[in-house]
């Protein structure tokens, strides 16, 4: 019976499925006929979806169509084949564009030309190549010349097309890192022969000659002719875009931004418009606000009589957009209107590309603009003031990490005022950076590996430099504007950056950087202020940010706009978040610092850090070296006053906010001296023989200390350690409770590395006993709780049993990650890169929680714990407490708080609010 039923079902479903697969639409038009919209980014990519949206709201977009990302995935999984029916769909879409433009693709009288552009779900600037002027061949180029009445223009388009197509589709590319671009070489040779200085000096006839040589070059390299058939060209270009999704540049970028390989890219095929047809034409890139500092000004740059990447490529220096108001007042006025319309419609700062053909404006792209952290905060606050964003939206628009850029150090104002700038450029990435000069990305990586801080100085940067840029403190380029690669990447990476410092002359061969009379060599110090754009020779000291100075009472809030922005965002964040944010702090200074940043308590005070200062380490060592309980107790008695004092200091600094104290955690041998000299000194101090000490050190040696005698296991073996620590905590609590201005502390005592209910109970009993003793002796009542860390898998899976004894859980996700993955954080350096490159790790599991593995243990333990104690308090105190993605996860599994290092507190507050808003 069941077999029959399922057969029947299958029969019924089959034709339907077939019909569905046939009906999967692979091509979406934009223009007068528009099929897509901005919500369809997954399918159409960001560029395609927004071209459709702009067309739909009546902005002047040259018509075209988008081949979906699903086709890319199909193409990758099927050895470069396309789904059935695609060809017909593309043909129909071309027909539609032909109709709208009144031109025909491949026509020898009135040819329609296309651009073929990639476009993934998220923009990946400069990562994949665009082909322009597609459809030109030996016949259509003549038609274009006749139609436009501009022969030079037509042949310039043709030679550009052959160059781009030859490079991207046919693979005529430099073989080694140091080889010249083959097409450039041909061009340079011709220019030399003709004594032409720039490309612009080449006449139509020169360009015809160039085309001939380009074709010969392609033939020589590939043994194939440059294709003349328009459709052959089109399919070649489409395939190249899909293939480019897997190229090295794209893969590196995807890894950095955790973009999954499965997303794929769409292909946009769009009717060409020409910014290179003469002086009534231009092309440019603009932002509706300043992407470096967020100020509300129309911002961007353009070139007259230019095409495509000329603006970004830095071949000619583009002009600031304000100048367009003089050169092309009509187009400039149109653009200002477009800015308003774009912001009102997309409700965010836009970064757009445009071309002016014969004084008519065309929009070629728009997207939410990449911005620096500072700009992100300012734009969110100001757009909320302008009612373009609600408060909730504004909160989600600020990448949580951005808040950090308001807190990073700036140059010490006095030191900076005393230094004399040697030059200046465009401030493209705010902040202050000092470091050794390096002139190549490779050198940057090498120096940083050797522990030096570097500033990468380049004429301009290209996507190949990405790794070196990542390693550098800051980036300085002598060429290129706000839309240059360097600026773009700096904005995304939050790097300090100055670009287009035109007085600076960088000589790669001589390894010098000259500005005016100053000449600096590789290795010399240089300092750059990415907020003002000024460059200084030498190193300059840095100091606290404005925000920090206000928080510490050294600057009036009204004197700092940055602080006001910070305060607004933090107020919003606190209003919306559900998670409390605590900090990991061991000293009163750290704690006070964190409280100024908004911490609501201490989630982890590591007591072992308290044992290292001054004489304490000696008593600690005496305790460890003791061979019997009595000697151990004697040493512990000496440690007690120190611990008590430390806890009292911490309780005072926290003014009654909750404090979680973790009892001794690391293996004891960590405290012992490992070299002869210190052993000898210790022997003298403690009146022991050096041999004895060496012996004990040997005895305490462990093969695998991380999994050895540590955590609560120490307390189980030596209950007197737990006793002493508990006593110190309660006596300190009693002490601050009797101050003139009494502080009421409810200490939360946390037992580390628990795996068994019984071992936790063993320790909890000690704490209760000591608590009772102290309260009776001091005649006070202290309310306190005893809980445990959940940091080994056994504790997580038996969390219901453990919850019977624990009054709270705190997930120690560092150890929980190590023990769950069976992977030591300190030993993965040798293979981490392999795991990243093979995409086994999408990210470092110690920086961002492994949600599907470790995360499931956290989730399960939370549920089990609360099944026994409904209101069990749950927190997390690993590194992950300061990581926005992980915070989102902790919110979703219902923890009460995250605890992170003091400087991460603002990031955590914002991330927690975003998690709550995104719900
Ligand atoms: P990227 O994603 O690298 O920005 P694009 O696909 O946006 O690449 O293309 C790069 C440039 O090519 C654009 O900025 C624009 O100047 C030019 N371009 C693209 N399509 C067209 C077109 N239809 N007409 C004219 N220029 C175009
Ligand atoms: Mg673009
Ligand atoms: Mg631990």
Structure description:
The protein is of the alpha/beta class and 919 residues long. 46% of the residues lie in helices and 16% in strands. It has 36 helices and 33 strands. Helix 18 links the parallel strand 17 (454-458) and strand 18 (474-477). Helix 21 (561-576) crosses helix 36 (905-918). The longest helix is centred in the last third of the chain and has 26 residues, at 629-654. The radius of gyration is 33 Å and the shape is elongated. Residues 1-21 have low confidence and may be disordered. The structure holds adenosine-5'-diphosphate and magnesium ion (2 copies). One magnesium ion (MG) binds at residues 353, 365.
Poorly predicted runs of 5 or more residues: 1-21
Task: Report Rg.
Answer: 33 Å
Q: What is the straight-line distance between the termini?
A: 45 Å
Instruction: Name the overall outline.
Output: elongated
Mean pLDDT: 92
State the helical fraction. Answer: 40-55%
Strand line-up of the largest beta sheet:
14-24-23-16-17-18-19-15
Strand and helix map with partners:
Layout: H1 2-23, E1 27-30, H2 41-56, E2 64-67, H3 69-77, H4 86-101, E3 104-105, E4 111-112, E5 114-120, E6 131-134, H5 140-148, H6 151-168, H7 182-194, H8 204-222, H9 230-244, H10 248-256, E7 265-271, E8 282-287, E9 299-304, H11 310-313, E10 319-320, H12 324-327, H13 329-346, E11 350-357, E12 360-368, H14 373-385, H15 391-397, E13 410-411, H16 413-418, E14 421-424, E15 426-429, E16 432-438, H17 441-449, E17 454-458, H18 466-471, E18 474-477, H19 485-493, E19 496-499, E20 504-507, E21 512-515, E22 518-521, E23 525-529, E24 534-537, E25 542-543, H20 546-551, H21 561-576, E26 580-584, H22 588-596, E27 602-606, H23 616-625, H24 629-654, E28 659-662, H25 676-686, H26 690-700, H27 712-717, H28 719-737, E29 748-751, H29 757-778, E30 785-790, H30 793-797, H31 799-803, E31 808-811, H32 813-821, H33 829-837, H34 854-868, E32 873-876, H35 884-892, E33 897-900, H36 905-918
Parallel strand pairs: 3-4, 16-17, 17-18, 18-19, 26-27, 26-33, 27-28, 28-29, 29-30, 30-31, 31-32, 32-33
Antiparallel strand pairs: 1-2, 2-7, 5-6, 5-7, 8-9, 8-11, 9-10, 11-12, 13-25, 14-24, 15-19, 16-23, 20-21, 21-22, 23-24
Helix pairs in contact: 5-6, 6-8, 7-8, 14-15, 14-21, 21-36, 22-24, 23-24, 24-28, 28-29, 35-36
The structure holds adenosine-5'-diphosphate and magnesium ion (2 copies).
